[in-house]
Amino acid sequence: MQLPASNISDIGKAGEVIGNISEKIDVQQCTPSYSATLPKEGKIGKNAVASVVATCAKGKKIELFLNEEKIGEEVVNSNDESTVTFSVPFKTEGANTIKISSNGELIKSGEASVSPLGSNDTSGVKNDAFSAKDLIASGFEIENEIGVKSVGVFLKKLYSTNFKSSRVVVEIRPNDNDAPAESIIATAAVPFDKLTMNERWIWFNFNESVNLKKGRYWLVFRVEQEKAEIINDVANIHYVGEDTEKKAGWYSKKMTLEWDKKEGDYKETEWQPANYDRIYSVLISSETH
């Protein structure tokens, strides 16, 4: 039996009306609810994760604010339970405020304690020597753009006396095939006299903030001194690494320079991996110390 076309059209319209009524009832009965999770700590240059589980929130705009600046938003596309995830790029140390809202209404707020990038582990007694002749390099990787104002290093000196004009130098260099490039982004130095025979944190402040984009970089440590071809002032940088069988990671390198008699100066050779895996006690900071 075939229904007249007019009846089929009427049935279609009736179905559409019922669907609209059903949708309106669902919207009236569905109240948005949210459950948010915020990071409580982090390091500069690293991304943390904030998330919201939203229910009955179709069409709602979820926004993320870091230190009062909006850094992300996403619109929920279903009334079913949906998880919205944000990347939180920490750039400055101290208390970072994080807020998540829905269409301007606060869902949750909190603070994350953000520390310098690197390792403050000074356990054990191991260290590597560096001088005008022998260089040490410590690699680091950042996931977002940061401004570096200082570098802290856990250091001591090998001998009780040194040349008065000697300086300990830290260079920030780009990455070149997982080794320090020849070019130098920024340099900071302190008088060698600041080092003692006992290990302690020494801070190197840059003249201005060094802006680094996402990627890998290197800190190269050396001594700048007079009469380097005769005798070297030696500094020792602390590291943590107990497994002497574990292959060194990409982030620890060393280089022994060659003396150029014609130029009267040391020349760079090739970067070599450390003997085994180690983490240098180095901190990269967004603040001046």
Write the layout of secondary structure elements.
Elements: H1 5-29, E1 33-37, E2 41-43, E3 47-55, E4 61-66, E5 69-75, E6 82-89, E7 94-102, E8 105-115, E9 117-118, E10 127-130, E11 134-142, E12 146-157, E13 167-174, E14 186-191, E15 200-212, E16 215-224, E17 235-240, E18 252-256, E19 258-260, E20 265-267, E21 272-273, E22 279-280, E23 282-285
Protein model, in words:
The chain contains 1 helix and 23 strands. With 289 residues, it is mainly β. It folds into 2 domains: 82 residues, Immunoglobulins (Immunoglobulin-like, Sandwich), CATH 2.60.40.10; 169 residues, Sandwich (Jelly Rolls), CATH 2.60.120. The longest helix has 25 residues.
Features:
289 residues, mainly beta, Jelly Rolls, six-stranded antiparallel beta sheet, 1 helix
Number of strands: 23
* Structure annotation, total helices: 1
| Helix vs. strand class | mainly beta
Q: Which word captures the global form? A: elongated
Outline the low-pLDDT stretches: 17-27
CATH fold call of the largest domain: Jelly Rolls
CATH class of the largest domain: Mainly Beta
Mean of the pLDDT scores? 91
- Report how far the terminal alpha carbons are from each other: 89 Å
Question: In percent, how helical is the residue content?
Answer: under 10%
Which H/E pattern describes the elements? HEEEEEEEEEEEEEEEEEEEEEEE
CATH architecture of the largest domain: Sandwich
Largest sheet, strands/sense/barrel: 7 strands, antiparallel
Radius of gyration: 29 Å
Assembly category: single chain
**Strand fraction:** over 45%
Number of domains: 2
